[in-house]
User: What shape does this take?
Amino acid sequence: MPEMPEVQGLADFLRSKLLPVDAPPAVVSDVEVLSFSVLKTAEVPLDALKDGPVTAVGRRGKFLIITAGGVHLVIHLAKAGWLRFSDALKPGRLRPGKGAMALRVRFAPQDPAGDEPGFDLTEAGTKKSLAVYVVRDVEEVPGIARLGPEAFDVDQETFAALVAGHRGQIKGLLRDQSVIAGVGNAYSDEILHAAHLSPFANASKLTPEEVERLYQAMGAVLESAIENASGRPAAELKDSKRRALRVHARTGELCPVCGDTVREVSFADSSLQYCPTCQTGGKLLADRRLSKLLK
Assistant: This one.
C-alpha cells in the first residue's frame, strides 16, 4: 500500500506536470470511469472538474488530492492501486472492463495539435478497494474526516500523550490513521526497527526514553523516505521504496544493522517483519495471530 512518503512523491510529481512553472496550469478535458465501483460519490458530477484549471495538487494522510474547477478529486490507492502518468495518452475513449484499469483523467494539450497528457488509476488483484471521490470539501470524504494529525505536525509532548493513552500494541498505534495520519504497515515496521522496539510492545507501558526514541525514529524514517521519493517519476516510486526498506518485506535477509536474520509474523491478510536482535532481545515472536512471545 502506498503510504505518506509515496503519496507525497506522487503529489509532487503531478504538481510538476499539472502546475508547471513555465506554462499555464493543466485543464481537465475528460474523466473516464472504467470500474464503476471505484467512484464513491455522486452528488458532485465528474464534469465539474472541467469547469476550471487545476489549482492545487496535495495530500492528506494517504489521500491524493487534485483540485480543479473549484472541486476536489480525492484518490485513495488502497492496498493495490497505483497511478500511471503519460505525457501522451492514445486518443479515443476506453471500454469499461474487468481488467486493472479503473479510471482515466485526460488533460487538454498545451498546443492544440499536441498530445493529451493524463493519468490512469489501476488496481491489481480481485479485491477492489481503490476509491475516488469528487467533493466540494475534502472533509466530506469519510476517511479524511477521521484522520488524526500528520506525523510532522505532532510534537514530542503530544506524541507521548498519544502513546500513553493507547491500550494496544505500539505497531497498531502507528498504523491507526485516526491517531497519526499517513503511516502504514511498511513504515511502522521501519520505524520500530529504527527505535529498537518490538511491534508487540504495549504502548502504554513504554518508558519515557523508549517513547522519545520512537518519536525520533518516526521523524527520521519518514524524512528519509520523503527525500527518497522526492523528484521521482510516478513509475519509479514503488521500486525506490522497496530498495530503501531495511526490514519490511525482507524476511530471511540479513538485518543491515546487526546481521541477524529478519523474521516475519503472518496474519490473515498482512504480515510484519522485525529483527530479533535489534527489537526483541533475541526472542522470536509467535508466527500466528496471538501476539505473544514464544516461551
About this structure: The chain has two domains: 4-145, 151-279.
